[in-house]
Amino acid sequence: MKNETHNTAIVVIPPEDIWGPIQAIRQKHDSKARRWMPHITLIYPFGPESDFGRAAEELAPACKAIRPFDVELATFRTFNHGKGYHTIWLAPEPERPLGDLHAEVWTAVSWQDAFEPDIERFEPHLSVGQARGTVNAVKLIQKLQADWTPIRFPVLSVHLISRGNRPDDAFRIVQSLPLQGVPSVD
């Protein structure tokens, strides 16, 4: 996309009433806990906030065609970014409904360039922290896993979020698009 920006994204956000255990981990281990709410990214970076109206018009029919589904956050995993940097994340299960939602969102936002490679590489995840060094990442995952109680929640909508040019640099929900049968909250 020609006008993509790291100030916006399209995400799935768990209900706030289940954030407690996730945020407890993120406050200790996630350098970006202040910037992002707990989320599963569908598209990032995205277009400027000024294009959200157009994006919402294109996304609404796709969202209305997808039935709500439940995901469970039970297992911690890691992305190895090389040079000893790791992102620690919770794996939403089952993956398939999120993969289907991701593909529908990318397809609906037709002005995204080269979306097919991103659809093929999509791995749903909810980031909870970073670790330096493989040994530290493995130890952290083992500790988190031992203390973790799985969380289940319904995916009811897709959110357009932006951090704009706010002084606090934190993302906020600008618009929510409900899935099939879920009432709009406007």
Quick description:
By secondary structure, this protein is an alpha+beta fold.
Give a quick account of the main beta sheet: strands, pairing sense, barrel closure. 4 strands, antiparallel
Summarize the amount of helix as a percent range.
25-40%
Query: What series of H and E elements makes up the topology?
Result: EHEHEEHHEHEEE
Task: Work out the helix count.
Answer: 5
The whole-angstrom Rg is: 16 Å
Instruction: Give a count of the beta strands, DSSP E runs of length 2 or more.
Output: 8
Measured by DSSP, the beta-strand proportion falls in: 25-35%
Spatial shape? globular
Unreliable spans are none
Strand arrangement across the biggest beta sheet? 2-1-7-8
Provide the structure class: alpha+beta
Average pLDDT taken over every residue: 91
Fold topology:
Elements lengths: L7 E5 L6 H11 L10 E4 L8 H13 L4 E14 L2 E9 L1 H14 L6 H7 L4 E7 L1 H14 L3 E5 L1 E6 L9 E7 L8
Antiparallel strand pairs: 1-2, 1-7, 3-4, 3-6, 4-5, 7-8
Helix pairs in contact: 2-3
